[in-house]
Every structure is written in structure tokens, then in C-alpha cells.
TrEMBL record:
Stored SMART domains: HATPase_c (SM00387)
Segments traversing the membrane: 199-217
Enzyme class per UniProt: transferase
Domain Histidine kinase, first and last residues per copy: 240-434
Molecular function as annotated in GO: ATP binding; phosphorelay sensor kinase activity
Alphabetized PANTHER family for the sequence: SENSOR PROTEIN CREC, SENSOR PROTEIN RSTB
PROSITE patterns: HIS_KIN (PS50109)
Reactions mediated catalytically: ATP + protein L-histidine = ADP + protein N-phospho-L-histidine
Protein name: histidine kinase
Length: 434
């Protein structure tokens, strides 16, 4: 996967995580708002129930029981008759009107639609040991015009009732004992719409943030692509210039060779060699397969000492065998690393070469060093460290790129040990087998 693909994958993962966090946060906000609104609605419902208890004054429980008992003694009393006599009585209608009025007063200005109901759901005759109230058919004492759909329990009541019933037909007194259970329930019917009204601003802000992040990412990708195209064009231009310089350099070499040797010709030869080195550093292709010998290594190090008189170069060579490394490759590595040391204010350079089961090169200087955050980029083609001192130093930013390419061509590794103002050490290891 390319760099752009990695960026897209990383952004997608981060975006999905952020989206999940936003959804989780909104979901939690929804639940908290629902809990708070139901709490407020319950307080209103409680206050209405307290007021209704004052107005009810022991409303009809005993008379209702007498009525049920009477129907029970007549046997075969139907559920419809019971509901007709209890729920549609004038007193029930009166209390329903009262509770609607109270609820309207309590919810005025809140936007709440609260349904409230008080009912008896069980009457157990202790004498007959039977349930007098038909299953799932509670006696509604009063309720709001808005009916409960699911309902939340406010409170439950349970009490014993002693009823004295005088039967005038048979001139007898009858006593009944029963256990009565009642409950009060409420429901905030428009809770969902109220929550949505409260969390809409939060949703809009969250959505706006996500859209803005997508917009910024899209713009960033476009800028990166534009910069990459510009860099690619720059690389192509530099490579083309270097290629075009080969012809005039060759012409100059023939021209210098054909004239009489003078002081000027020596100067021209040095300048032509310098041009050749610059062109070679831009696109070098290894042309020879001659393996470097110990003597050639010593000769080249001496050339480096002569070429960089401002540097104190020390070298340690341990040479057992060389099975792979060519002269051209070694000279390219050493010349570019020593040239960098010279450019970046080094005074001393130490070179250690070891040719055994592996070829190991250790080049250490006491120059300006390379900041840690820049070390991963210095091997990129045309890359130069962004610091003030570098503006005064000439270079194309290809030396370390060529070193890295050469090392990788031999399946080797290169490591940097450095820091700002602490000098630089390059550790290179290459296989030494055919």
C-alpha cells in the first residue's frame, strides 16, 4: 500500500472512532435528558396526586367493594356491568375533569403532555378466599384524557377493608374483609420530541465538526498531491539538466586534451572533474565490476586527505577478503560521506573499515550533526535539512540518497547516530559473500 493509501486508512480509522464517540456521546445525552425529563414529569404527577387525594376524601373504595360483593352474591355478574357501574359513574367523570384541570395548571409553560392514572387492580376477599376483580381489568378511579401507553409506576397502595353490609331482604348483617391493592402511574407522552428539541443543537455541532474535518482532509490531500507533482517535476528537471551536461563536459575534456598543457589547463581540468562529480552524484549507475583491493582503499583515502586539507582524516583498515564490494561503490560511499563532513563544519573524520564475513564501514565526524526528527528524511533524494546554517552551504541533497541506494543494492544496512551539535556517525554493514 502506498503512502497515500496509508494516510487514507489512518484517517478513516480515526474518523470512524471519532464518529463512534460522537454517537456514544449523543446517545448518552439522550438517555440523560430522558431521565431528567421523566424526573420532572414525575414531580408534577406527584403534586397532582397529592391534590387529588385531598379532593377525593376517601373516594368510594368501600362502596365499590359493597357493589362488587353484591354483584358477586347475585352470581353471574359480568365484567361489562362492573365497568359500566364503576368507570362511567358521574363521580368518576367528575374526578377525571378535576385531574385534567390540575394537570393543565401544573404543566403550563413546560411543554409536557403527562398522562396520569389511579386504579385499583386487586380486591381479595379474605372470607371467600377469592379475587373479586376480574383479571387484567382494574378499576380506574380517575385518569387524564391523555391515556397511558406504557406507563411508569409512581406508587402502590395496599390496605385492609372491613365492610358491613345489611341485607334488608333477609334481615341479616353481613361482614366482609378484603385486601385492596391500588397503584398510580404516569407517562410523559411527548418525551421523545422534547429530547430531540434539546439535543438538536448538539447533533448539528457534531455533524458540522465531522463535515469540517472531511473538508480539511480533502483539502490536505489535494495540497499533498500538488506538492508531490511539483517535487516530481523538479526532480525530472534536475535529472534532465544533469543529462544534458554530459555532452559539453565530454567536449571540454577533448578540447583540454588537445591543447598545450599550461596553468590554465590544470585549472580547467579541476573544474571539469568537479562538474563530472556533480553530474555523477545526480544519477550514478555502477559501470564496473572490479572488486576493491586493500591497496586501492589506502590510495583512495590518501586522495581524500589531499582533497580535503581542512579535515583531519584518520583511517583504520582490517582487510581479510573482499568478495562483493566494487571500487566504484566504496569510493562513492566514502567520498559522499566525507564531503558531507567537510560541508557541515567537521574538523575531524574517523574512518574504520573491516572486511571479514561482512563489510563494515564506520565513518564518524565532529560536525554540526543531524537532528533526530530529520534523520528519517535525509536519505530522500534532494532533501535538505531546514535550518539557518544550511542556507550558507551548497549542495543538491543527493549525497546520502546515493549512499543509501548503493547500500541497498548490496542488501546492506545504514544507520545514523547523531544529534544537533553532537557530530554524526554512519554505520554501514554489507554482506561479503558471492
Amino acid at each position: 500500500m502506498n503512502k497515500k493509501g496509508n494516510i487514507l486508512l489512518l484517517f478513516s480509522c480515526c474518523f470512524l472512532i471519532l464518529l463512534g464517540l460522537q454517537v456514544f456521546y449523543i446517545h448518552n445525552s439522550y438517555q440523560l435528558e430522558e431521565k431528567e425529563l421523566n424526573r420532572e414529569a414525575r414531580l408534577i404527577a406527584d403534586s397532582v396526586l397529592v391534590e387529588m387525594e385531598h379532593l377525593k376524601k376517601g373516594m368510594r373504595e368501600d362502596s365499590l367493594i359493597k357493589h362488587l360483593l353484591k354483584l358477586d352474591t347475585q352470581e353471574r355478574a359480568t365484567d361489562k356491568i362492573i365497568q359500566y357501574n364503576l368507570n362511567l359513574s358521574k363521580s368518576t367523570e367528575h374526578f377525571n375533569q378535576l385531574i385534567d384541570q390540575l394537570m393543565e395548571q401544573r404543566t403550563k409553560g413546560t411543554g409536557f403532555r403527562i398522562a396520569l392514572k389511579n386504579e385499583i387492580y386487586s380486591i381479595n376477599d379474605l372470607r371467600l378466599k377469592k379475587e373479586l376483580l376480574p383479571p387484567e381489568t382494574p378499576i380506574v378511579l380517575y385518569e387524564t384524557k391523555d391515556k397511558i401507553e406504557k406507563g411508569n409506576l409512581i406508587n402502590e397502595g395496599k390496605w385492609n377493608s372491613d365492610v358491613h353490609h345489611q341485607n334488608t331482604d333477609q334481615s341479616t348483617d353481613e361482614y366482609y374483609k378484603s385486601v385492596i391493592k391500588s397503584r398510580s402511574m404516569f407517562e410523559l407522552l411527548n418525551v421523545r420530541s422534547l429530547i430531540i428539541q434539546k439535543i438538536i443543537p448538539l447533533c448539528v455541532i457534531s455533524l458540522s465538526i465531522l463535515i469540517f474535518l472531511l473538508y480539511l482532509f480533502r483539502k490536505t490531500l489535494k495540497n499533498i498531491e500538488l506538492q508531490n507533482r511539483k517535487i516530481a517535476q523538479l526532480h525530472t528537471t534536475i535529472d534532465s539538466i544533469a543529462h544534458e551536461l554530459n555532452t559539453p563536459i565530454t567536449t571540454l575534456k577533448f578540447a583540454i586534451a588537445s591543447v598545450q598543457e599550461t596553468t590554465s589547463t590544470h585549472l580547467l581540468e579541476r573544474q571539469v572533474r568537479k562538474l563530472e562529480h556533480i553530474v555523477a552524484s545526480i544519477h550514478t549507475v555502477e559501470q564496473t565490476t572490479d572488486l576493491v583491493t586493500e591497496q586501492e582503499i589506502k590510495q583512495f583515502i590518501q586522495q581524500l586527505k589531499n582533497s580535503y586539507p581542512s579535515l583531519t582524516i584518520t583511517a583504520t583498515i582490517q582487510f581479510n577478503k573482499n568478495e562483493r564490494l566494487t571500487k566504484q561503490a566504496l569510493e562513492l560511499i566514502l567520498s559522499n560521506l566525507v564531503d558531507n563532513s567537510s560541508k557541515y563544519k567537521a574538523n575531524n573524520v574517523e574512518i574504520r573499515l573491516s572486511f571479514g564475513t561482512r563489510v563494515e564501514l564506520l565513518i564518524t565526524d565532529d560536525g554540526m550533526g543531524i537532528p533526530k526528527e530529520e534523520q528519517q528524511h535525509v536519505f530522500e533524494k534532494y532533501y535538505r535539512i531546514s535550518r539557518t546554517e544550511n542556507h550558507e552551504i551548497n549542495g543538491l541533497g543527493v549525497g546520502l540518497y546515493l549512499v543509501k541506494n548503493t547500500v541497498e543494492r548490496y542488501n546492506g544496512t545504514v544507520e545514523i547516530i547523531s544529534g544537533s551539535g553532537k557530530g554524526t556517525t554512519f554505520k554501514i554493514a554489507l554482506p561479503n559473500e558471492k
